[in-house]
Amino acid sequence: MKLDRLLAIVVLLVNRGRVQAKDLADTFEVSIRTIYRDIDTLGQAGIPVVTYQGASGGIGLADGYRLDRNVLTDQDLASIVTALRSISTSHSNVARDLLVEKLSSIVPEAKNEDFQSNTSRFIVDYSTWTHPEALQIKLQLIESGMDQSRLITFTYCSAGGNQTIRTVEPHTLVLKRHSWYLYAFCHERNQFRMFKLVRMRDVTLAQGYFERRLIQPHDRPWQQEWVAPDNQAPLTLRFHARARHLAEEWFGIENVIPDGNGYYISQVAFPEDNWLYGFILGFGADVEVLEPEHIRVTIRHMAEQIVQNYTSASQT
């Protein structure tokens, strides 16, 4: 709807300051001409939209303009409450729980039934299967560090077994590949690094404080590294019929194609690392890597080592 697009444009301009018309057109999948018509409509409605010329130009709002909080619709409130409840599944927070209560209380009684229905349509459970208490403690400590702009220290155990003491400025918690990560500025490395929470031990709040460094959330530096072409390994996997449902759950029904011989083919791309090898091996004998050849060889060698481990155990 045009009204929804107009409101979304204003929100983007408030948050980002200045945006190119082409970027807005791409975001909303409309023409640049439509964007300029929308800008005219906003101007006629009293929204102080400013068009800047030149190489660094774009569309922005007059300095100091803010949206009224009454701009939030009942659906907006329902979406916020759903997101807050999802986060609370991994670690509880009294302030966050109170915020849910506050947001719920401002919904008119006549609309409460619809509101409760909207907030129960999606349930995202971030809790882990194992050691949830240990994860909650880490998350709470890190969140306290972020709230107070306070340094945290911990022992970090790398995948190679090396242990180092780190002092970092905690900036962002990231849930990725079913695991929690901390994006922080590391004093030992003098740069931003990603730390996997399950590899962090003895997490404590340090005495020092820091001034938060500017990070644009929409830049998502952790996402850029993940999807970088040089970090992607294209895979062709062949699944046995009995594992078809697992392949569909991971890759989607449209990407699990029958090959005419009773098997199913999926073409996917993942960063190549130990997680990928373990992921493939997790399907057991129900999957075969067809391409690339070097990953096929790696999986075969790992499978041979597994057989050797169990053969050796049976002989002792």
Automatic annotation (TrEMBL):
Transmembrane segments: none annotated. InterPro entries: CBASS_pafABC_assoc_protein, DeoR_HTH, HTH_11, PafC-like, WCX_dom, WH-like_DNA-bd_sf, WH_DNA-bd_sf, WYL_dom. It holds the Pfam family WCX. The keyword DNA-binding applies. PROSITE patterns: HTH_DEOR_2, WYL. Keywords: DNA-binding, Transcription, Transcription regulation. It comes from the Bacteria. Residues 2-57 form the HTH deoR-type domain. Signal peptide: none annotated. GO terms for molecular function: DNA binding; DNA-binding transcription factor activity. This is DNA-binding transcriptional regulator YafY. The lineage of its organism: Bacteria, Bacillati, Bacillota, Bacilli, Bacillales.
